[in-house]
């Protein structure tokens, strides 16, 4: 099955038969956590001796889920994540298919022990107006990312200059395989978030950041069609399921 996408007056052929899922699901008692929260819970409803689980005698499975979208699994957020004003990702994200580019980046170590993604690194990988969405795979790309406890890990982050560069390049949707584009402990500055969303000067309401993805090693760097699927929740962020499709003629 194929579809076509027009980009810069060129028709691109999309292979829809082999979707590439780059999301990490919310699982009961998952070890994938961030922001100092406990693991998510998925448990059957209980009323007295009755348990809403077919294997325990009920006619249905009827679970309640406790989770935080920012801490448990792949999630997509809008400017509402950092704004005084309320903005919902369910309202801000109105289009769901985008030309995207996957790039792999080895973070640079700084003199203070941090690891960063700099403007110079991005300039080598992404050019102005060549794509709407950018998917960053950090290196090394161990499968341990799928079940990593990121608490107190000081993960790599984007510099403010790097985020401004991406914004100026026309990137509206930034996807990364880390809990945040910002430093874990930055005293609440969230400089990369503010720079990418252009907040508070002129907020980009149609821009999104997706975090805690996983781009398998067999997915090569290059261009893809991105389908950015979100749950219909009126919140600054929601669990999401980004899917990539190969482009046959690009």
From TrEMBL:
Any Pfam family: Cyclase
Top-level taxon of origin: Bacteria
GO biological process, one term: L-tryptophan catabolic process to kynurenine
GO molecular function annotation: arylformamidase activity
Protein's name in the database: Cyclase family protein
């Amino acid at each position: 099955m194929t579809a076509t996408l027009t980009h810069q007056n060129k028709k691109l052929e999309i292979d829809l038969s082999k979707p590439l899922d780059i999301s990490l699901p919310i699982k009961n008692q998952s070890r994938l956590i961030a922001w100092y929260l406990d693991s998510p819970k998925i448990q059957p409803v209980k009323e007295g001796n009755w348990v809403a689980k077919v294997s325990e005698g009920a006619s249905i499975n009827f679970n309640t889920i406790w989770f935080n979208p920012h801490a448990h699994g792949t999630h997509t957020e809008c400017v509402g994540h950092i704004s005084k004003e309320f903005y919902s990702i369910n309202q801000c994200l109105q289009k769901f298919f985008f030309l995207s580019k996957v790039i792999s980046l080895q973070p640079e170590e700084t003199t203070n022990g941090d690891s960063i993604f700099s403007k110079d690194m991005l300039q080598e990988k992404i050019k102005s107006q060549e794509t709407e969405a950018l998917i960053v795979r950090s290196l090394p790309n161990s499968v341990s990312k799928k079940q990593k406890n990121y608490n107190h890990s000081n993960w790599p982050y984007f510099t403010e200059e790097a985020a401004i560069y991406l914004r100026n390049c026309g990137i509206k949707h930034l996807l990364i395989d880390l809990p945040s584009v910002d430093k874990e402990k930055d005293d609440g500055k969230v400089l990369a978030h503010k720079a990418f969303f252009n907040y508070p000067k002129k907020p980009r309401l149609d821009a999104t950041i997706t975090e805690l993805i996983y781009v398998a090693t067999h997915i090569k760097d290059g261009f893809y069609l991105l389908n950015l699927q979100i749950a219909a929740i009126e919140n600054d962020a929601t669990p999401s399921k980004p899917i990539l499709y190969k482009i046959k003629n690009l």
